[in-house]
Amino acid sequence: MNYQEIRQWLSNRPVSDLENGVARVKWLLEGLDNPQLQVPTIHFVGTNGKGSTLNALQSILQASGYTVGRFTSPSIIDFREQIVYQQEMISEDDFARIVTDL
């Protein structure tokens, strides 16, 4: 599938497909050999301020020479904004390739 086809597929999924989200994420991560355990990770949770805190910390870490990737959810405008590496959204081609591989 290409990026536009994947966007349409994701947008049209019934809400019932999203049930058991935690179990599905756990299954997916285990199938990928738990990549979240292979890199230092900071997990932001809460009601307010996560995005601004994340952006500030990302800037500080990058200014200190760290390589920073982030995953946020939900997306606001574009599904790709959920996956960012060094302040650049994932490309449409890479997004499509990864979703297709999964």
From TrEMBL:
Gene Ontology CC, one term: cytoplasm
Keyword Protease: no
Keywords: ATP-binding, Ligase, Nucleotide-binding
A single MF term (Gene Ontology): dihydrofolate synthase activity
Family classification: Belongs to the folylpolyglutamate synthase family.
Name the UniProt record assigns to this protein: Bifunctional folylpolyglutamate synthase/dihydrofolate synthase
Organism, scientific name: Streptococcus suis
